[in-house]
Amino acid sequence: MKKFAPSPHGLRKVHPPSRRRVLLNVAAASVATLAAPYVLAKQAAQVVVVGGGFAGATAARTLARDGDGDIAVTLIEPQTQYTACPLSNAVVAGMRDLKAQQFGYDALDKDRIKRVSARATGVDPTARRVTLEDGTQIDYDRLILAPGVDLRFDGLRGYDQKAAETMPHAWKAGAQTLLLRRQLEDMKDGGLVIISVPANPYRCPPGPYERASLIAHYLKTKKPRSKLMILDGKDTFSKQKLFEAAWKELYPGLIEWVPLSSGGQVVEVDAATKTLVTDFGKHRAAVASVIPPQRAGEISAIAGVADKTGWCPVDPVTFESRLQPNIHVIGDAIIAGGMPKSAFAGNSQAKVCAGAVAQILRGETPTAQKLINTCYSVVAPVYGISIASVFEPRDGLLTEVAGGVSPMDKPASFRAEEARQAEAWFETITRAVYG
Amino acid sequence: MAARIMVNAPASAAKGEVIEIKTMIAHKMETGHRMGTMGQIIPRDIIHRFECRYDGALVFAADLFPAVSANPFITFTTVATKSGKISFKWIDDKGKSSTSSVKIKVT
Fold it and tell me: B24 and A261 in contact by Cβ < 8 A?
């Protein structure tokens, strides 16, 4: 029913300090006058989102759709196409095309989100201004950072960007995913594949074990004399009982998991010989996937919203940074308590954050929401397992209040159904975020 | 059942060289502060003493307390003085000692 031109917003050098107050007054007036929407459009509050992954794209769209025209949304994302991580382990194992993981931003453009294809390189929290790599400045009333993770090439001795070309992390989907796939295809039958897993926290807690499972499937069907070893910096992992039961059933004797307490922590790698050094031994691999320690994406440190852990503490109701006002952080970059670093968690946080930002801009008080995470792991083409949890703000963090994993001891038909649901889950979330 | 023990020490070293030794033993390190399902206290059972002897002489020891997490991982250094045996001993609250040793060649 509101008919007005898209709000003028975006690249401005001047930020009138009182504009938000003006907006709030106008918002109050709009209840009473029919002419208000036109005024509102002119006074749209500026929300800038950095990062076009599951969390960032969701936040931008939620605000653009629900903002009712009084919020102008800018999305800063250097890539013109997003390559999704969920199910990318199936690409590694040759079961899926990388194209099935890739999504454009056309639908966001149709939502009247102003998309800026550039890298954000600076944030001035006092002036409320983002700087792009070309020097352009964008002012904001509220900034939402969804920077994802950076792989720490200073976090594991011997593992730098060059080493990643030999021992792929494949922990950001794209060229690395295909490199690992190619290495597996080139490997002779009888080779040892090693996956190195860091200590918590890292992106996608069950991901390394799904990767082990699907590589095991590839080895079992294509290179049956080969073995797979997981060197782990932890003693327990997500969906552990389900994974271990599945490995016993599907890949007996193929996967060896070496936990921390058995000397599994990798402390050094040598890319030239594909050797992984633990505290108590050395392992030479034919193919090695080294998942290094991680931290919040670089812009979070630049903006001053990451603490000394490398991750971002936030308010669990609004996702506003505890370190900088007017900046919200969502997705894998945050310290979320019990909530894992997953696509669905980021999507869930983005919706709550977008709602809270809209409320704040209208002068309302954000209310605490429950958040959900759902995560499927595919252990074989027709064998899926899952975890689902509900979280709520408690003691300053997000605490799990309900949830569970797939039941144990179920027939193959049950696992096959969950594998189908995993596909459906991916279709649903990517259609909601990018479709 | 013998406890799982892991030791990483150099097999050889130059005389006078500072060598690093890493040790880990699998142990639950029950603090004595936790309650069981019926509300009863789970009795304390920790490794409270670790010793390393180099050819019989004590070169490193540690007293451990309930705050130390499960599977204590102890790393320390000593000076390579002569060829011989480096032995390790862990003693828990039940009085059980677990031992391990490595040989080092010093030139």
Answer: yes
Q: Are A263 and B70 a contacting pair at CB < 8 A?
A: no
CATH code of A170's domain? 3.50.50.60
Do the Cβ atoms of A280 and B4 come within 8 Å? no
Residue A383 lies in a domain: yes
List residues of B whose CB lies inside 8 A of any A CB. Answer: 4, 6-8, 22, 24, 26, 70-71, 73
Q: How far is A279 from chain B (nearest CA, A)?
A: 7
Domain boundaries, chain B: 5-106
Rounded to the nearest angstrom, the minimum Cα separation between B8 and chain A is 5
Asked if A278 and A299 sit in the same domain, the reply is no
pLDDT recorded at residue A27: 44
Q: Tell me the pLDDT tens digit for each residue of A367-395.
A: 999 999 999 999 999 999 999 999 999 99
Contacts of residues A5-8 at CB distance under 8 Å and 24 or more positions apart, as own/partner, are A5/A41, A6/A112, A7/A41, A7/A42, A7/A44, A7/A69, A7/A72, A8/A42, A8/A44, A8/A72
Residue of A nearest to B9 (CA): A280
Range of the domain at A192: 153-292+374-434
Kindly determine whether residue B8 and residue A279, on different chains, have CB atoms separated by under 8 Å. yes
Report which secondary-structure segment, H or E, holds A267: strand A266-270
A32 phi/psi in degrees, rounded to 5: -95, -30
Domain assignment of residue A88, yes or no? no
**Which ipTM value was assigned to this complex?**
0.82
Q: Please report residues of A whose CB lies closer than 8 A to that of B71.
A: 235, 260-261
Please tell me whether residues A177 and A270 are part of one structural domain: yes
Residues B22, A260: C-beta atoms closer than 8 Å: no
Question: What would the CATH number be for the domain defined by B5-106?
Answer: 2.60.40.10
Domain count, chain A: 2
Identify whether residues A195 and A270 lie together within a single domain. yes
Residues of A in contact with B73 (CB under 8 A): 279
Q: Which helix (H) or strand (E) holds B24?
A: strand B18-25
Check whether A23 has a pLDDT greater than 70.
no
CB atoms within 10 A of CB A365: 9
